[in-house]
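Hi support team,

I submitted a single chain yesterday and got back a structure, but I'm not sure I'm reading the token output correctly. Could someone confirm the output below corresponds to the sequence I sent? I've pasted both exactly as they appear in my results page.

Thanks,
R.
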Amino acid sequence: CGDFRKHLVTTKNNNSILWNGLAVLLWIGIFFAGLFPEPIFFKLRQLGGVTMHQAFINSHWFITFSCTGFLAWFVTQRSREAGVDSHLALGKGIQVAVLSLVAFLPVPIEILPGYFFILGRFYYFLIMAVITAKMLCWLYLLQVVLNYHLFAGADVLKDMPLLFPSARKQASAAPPAMSEDASDTPPTPANDEEKE
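Hi R., thanks for writing in. Yes, this is the structure output for that exact sequence:
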């Protein structure tokens, strides 16, 4: 019986490692597409043999919004499954959506060396600020996903700092959920002797 339990635990751990590894590969593909949304979009359309007139979607913003929506939904759902309050989970999802929108902006960072030759200093610092913000958000979200699948699990979502105070206020104002035992227990009738 002990050997059988060890076998089940080992099989479960192996399956968990396999699925987490596949999930990490999928996330790397999503983040790579979000890092270069414009060239990835046109490359996929070229590989599919779809012309501009035949394409249902002709904007590379589709990749930006798709990656943003999926990542925000993922964080919201996994936070709720981890026991995070619904308001806090929604606040974290919105926060991740904002960060993802910055991280997956269609900024052509592949031509980064060419930005150093921009003559106008204002436009130079503006572009560099946008690229810096994009890369910082991209790296932060990537480490969140990698930590979730490889190291900390759901704890990384529980410990994620929340910058929206309104979500905290709604969570603290929400009435505490009654346990099933308390809700199923009928009210205790008053003792007849105490009434007398």
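A quick pointer for reading it: The two ends are 61 Å apart (CA to CA). Let us know if anything else looks off.

Best,
Support desk
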